[in-house]
Specification:
Elements: H1 3-24, H2 30-53
Length: about 60
């Protein structure tokens, strides 16, 4: 598997996780909402690091 393909697969997996966590931000339980926001923040940080270490081509 090439680095580009692996990076693409990782981004797709993280995007799916963000969508799932985002759906929990409207949950009635404040602890669920807080944890959902923490998950989203962690994933966004991972994406920033991924982009920084492997800049887009072109």
């Amino acid at each position: 598997m090439s680095d580009d393909h692996a990076r693409h697969d990782i981004k797709n997996a993280l995007a799916t996780a963000v969508l799932a966590a985002d759906s929990l931000t409207g949950h009635a339980d404040p602890h669920v909402r807080k944890n959902a926001l923490m998950i989203i923040e962690a994933i966004e940080t991972a994406l920033i690091h991924l982009r920084a270490t492997h800049p887009q081509k072109g």
